[in-house]
Amino acid sequence: MKLRSLLTLSLSLLLSLSASVAASATKPNIVYVMTDDQGYGDLGFTGNPVVKTPHIDRLSTESSQLKDYHVAPTCSPTRAALLTGHWTDRTGVWHTVNGRSMLRENEITIGQLLQAHGYATGMFGKWHLGDNYPYRPEDRGFTEVYRHGGGGVGQTPDLWDNAYFDGSYLHNGRIVPAKGFCTDVFFAEAQRFIREQAAAKKPFFAYIALNAPHTPLHAPQKYLDLYAGQSADLAAFFGMITNIDDNVGTTRALLRELGIADNTLFIFTTDNGTASGAKLFNAGMRGQKGSEYEGGHRVSFLAHWPAAGWTKPHVSDTLCHAVDIVPTLLDITGAPTPAGLKFDGRSIRPLLDPAANTSGWPHERMLVTDSQRVRDPIKWKQTAVMSGSWRLINGKELYDIKADPGQERNVIAEQPARAAKMSAFYEAWWAELEPTFAQTTEIYLGHRDHPVVSLTGHDWIQEELPPWNQQHIRVADGFAPAQANAGKGKNAKSNKAAPSPEKSRHAGHWAVKVVTAGRYEISVRRWPVEANHPITAALPAGANVPGAEVAFRGRPGLAIPATTATLRLGGRDIASAPVHATDTSVTFTTTLTAGSHQLAPVFRTADGHEVGAYYAVVTKLP
C-alpha cells in the first residue's frame, strides 16, 4: 500500500475513534501564539532596550525557555515544518510565493492529529500554506478557521483592498466583515473559540498565527505614540509588537478567568528572524530575516504549563528546531502517530521539563535550515547545517556560536574534520530530498468539496517574483507599458527591472490538477471579483491607515489597454475573445481532461504586449 494511502487509512481510523474518546482533564489545552517577522531581539526579556513587552516578559519568568531554537528564515517554510514535523524542503514549501508556499496534500498536520485525538482545533490569522483545496486550513484538520488570505493582510490572495483596520476575513470559508486592528480581531476570535471550548469542557488547540509585525508597518495610533522618539519604521514595528503583547496579556487573563489556565500549555514563539528590528538591536547575532546566519532563524520560544510544573524560569540552550514541535505536542497530549508517519524532528519535552534528565540527549544531532526563495531548490543555497554550537554556512564557512556568537571568525581551515562531517550529513540530506522537488504542488479543479476555485497571481509559477501583494496588482506588475508609468518610491516599486521596448510576454502559469474531466468555465479578470471593476479601467487609490507606510491599496490602480483575452493551456493558446470597455471579466468554456495542466490566461493589447490575468475563477459545469 502506498504511504499516502496508508497515512490516510491510519488517520481515518483515528478520526473514527475520536468520537468515542471523552474529553479528559489530563489532556492539556494548547494555545500556540506565533508572530511574523519578530526576531529574537525584538522583546524586552531578550535585551531590547526600547520595545515594551511587559506581558511576554512576565511570561518568560514563568516559563520554560529554549535559547537555541531554530526555524526557517522565512514564514511559509517555518509554518510547514511547525505543522508537520518535516523539513520544509520535503513538504514542497520552500518559498513564500510562486506556487511553492502550498503544503503538499500528502502531509499530515498537527491539526489533523489532535482533531483525531478528540481536540477542538482552531486556526486564527495567517495560514500562508495555500488558499485553495486541498491546502486550506479547513482541509488540514482545523475545524474553526478565521484568517486572511495569502501571507498577509493586503496580499494578492487576500480580500480586495484589505488594510490592517476594519477589514474582511474568511471565517470557515465565508467572507465576514470585522471592525478594528487585524491583530486585535484575530485574538478576539481565538478568545471566542477558547470560551466556547471551555464551556463545552472540550480540550482545544488554538493556533494563533499573526501577520504582525510583518510589513507593511501599520498600527493603532496609540501604539505609534509609544515610540514617538524612534524612526517611523521602528515606531510602527515596535508598536505592532506591543499590541501583540497586550493581546497575549488579555488571552492569559481569559484562561485564568475561565479556570483553565492550570491545564493549558501556552506557547509563544516567532516564525523567523527580525525584518525591521536589527537596525536597533539584534541580540548580538549576524543576519536577519532571510539570512542563513543565526539572526535569520534563531528565535525565542516560551512554554508555560502549570499542571506540569513549567511555571518558573527554566532555560535550555540545547539545539532544536521547528520540526520538533509536532512530535513534542503528540508526546504531551498522548495523541498517537499514524502508522507509517515518520517525523524529521523528535520530542523536545525533556528540554522543556525542569524535572527531566537530559543527560542522554543527542547533543551531536545535526539540523538544517535554508532560505530557498527560488522556483526550485538550489544545493547549498543560503544553508546552515547546525550541530551543537557549530554552524556550517553554505558549505564554506564554519563558526562556533559559543565562542563567536556574531559569526565573525570563519574557522573552517582549523576544523576540517568537523566541517567534512557536517558537509557529509548535508550531502545525504540533500540526496534524500532532491527527488521530491519535482513534485509540483497543484491546485485542484473539479473537486466536489471545492467546485469553484479562485486563482491569483500570487501563485504563478515563474522564475521571477509574481505579483504577491495588491499594490503589485494596482501598478500592473509584469506589464511593461504600465510599469513605465507606475511611479517611484518605496511602495511603488515593481518586482521587475525597467521595461524593455520589446513586447512583453507572460512567463508564468498556475499548476492545476483536474480531478474530474469535463466542461469548465474559466472567468479571467484584471481586478478581483470583490472589486467588480472593468478590465480596462483604472482604479482610484484607497484610503490610507495609520503607520509608517502607505497601505497597499493606497496606490492608484493603473489601466491596462487590453483588447483581447486569451486562454493559454500547456503553453498553447486555445481560445481568444475581445475585451469590451465594460467587461469585468472574460469567460471561456472549455473541456479539460483529468490530470496535470499549466493554466496561463493572458490579456493582450493592440500592440502585442501581454500580461497574465491576475485573477481567474474556475467552475466545474454540470
The residue fraction in helices comes out at 10-25%
Number of helices: 14
Overall body shape: globular
How would you name the CATH homologous superfamily of the largest domain?
Alkaline Phosphatase, subunit A
Q: Report strand %.
A: 15-25%
CATH architecture tag of the largest domain: 3-Layer(aba) Sandwich
Task: Give the class from helix and strand content and strand pairing.
Answer: alpha/beta
Q: Layout of helices and strands, plus pairs?
A:
Elements: H1 3-18, E1 29-35, H2 54-60, E2 64-70, H3 75-84, H4 88-91, H5 110-116, E3 120-125, E4 144-147, E5 168-171, E6 174-177, H6 182-200, E7 204-209, H7 221-225, H8 232-257, E8 264-270, H9 294-297, E9 298-304, E10 314-316, E11 320-321, H10 325-333, H11 349-352, E12 366-370, E13 383-387, E14 390-393, E15 397-400, H12 416-433, E16 443-445, E17 452-456, H13 470-474, H14 480-483, E18 510-514, E19 518-525, E20 562-569, E21 572-578, E22 586-592, E23 595-599, E24 602-605, E25 610-612, E26 615-620
Parallel strand pairs: 1-7, 1-8, 2-10, 2-11, 3-4, 3-7, 16-18
Antiparallel strand pairs: 2-9, 4-5, 5-6, 8-9, 12-13, 13-14, 14-15, 17-26, 18-23, 19-22, 19-26, 20-21, 20-24, 24-25
Helix pairs in contact: 1-5, 6-8
